[in-house]
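Following up on my earlier message about pyridoxal-5'-phosphate. Here are the inputs again, as you asked, copied directly from the submission form:
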Amino acid sequence: MPFPDLADRVREVAQRIAAARQRGGHGQPVRIIAVTKTHGPDAVAAAAAVGIDDVGENRVQEALRKMDATALRVRWHLIGHLQRNKVAAVQRFDLMHSLDSLRLADAVSELGRSTERPVPVLAQVNVAGEESKGGFSLSDLPSAAERLANLGGLEVVGVMTMAPLGADDSMLRSTFRGARNALSVLCAAGHRATELSMGMSNDYEVAVEEGATYVRLGTVLFGARPA
Ligand SMILES: *Cc1c(COP(=O)(O)O)cnc(C)c1O
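Thanks, got it. Here's what our run produced:
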């Protein structure tokens, strides 16, 4: 059995999430997404076996291979950048967390309209304004939210963000609060946005305190990723 201590790890993480949720006082539901990138389909099976049926992948080709290799009914989350020429693959996912530009939104919208299946997405926001990361800046978001509200074929159901690498506690908090504000901006533009995807292995407790509804966890569940 691969990942023999996964059940213990999940129990510990769930306890930490419950405590953080209590401290935060937002009363939101919190779901764990098991980030299985670089691991094989056995990681998906191991997660499902301990009751986690939300799985996250950041690369489309790798995700599709894993989907094809498993018959398990889990919910697949796309958490990495999607190239516009691979946009059709979004239909294989239950939720795309990485809608990071209006150009990509146009492509997703076209797909959703042509298939008559609106694509659920999260708007990725780059709260700290990092050059190295994609996503909407907080200053662009109000106008982008209006544009997105007028596109058919997609439903913006929330926000995703990543904190800067090595951020200290106050930076983490301001990033996650910025994402929570971004959710209000979407709602003000008419989106029914409720999901906040934020928090990874190093910072999920702060994210939950600040209102995360999805935490995306790899290392803390499966150990260090193979290089
Ligand atoms: C890899 C990845 C994660 C999980 O990272 P860990 O630190 O291993 O928990 C979360 N979100 C995204 C977007 C990722 O690419």
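One observation from looking it over: The radius of gyration is 17 Å. Hope that helps, and feel free to reply on this thread.
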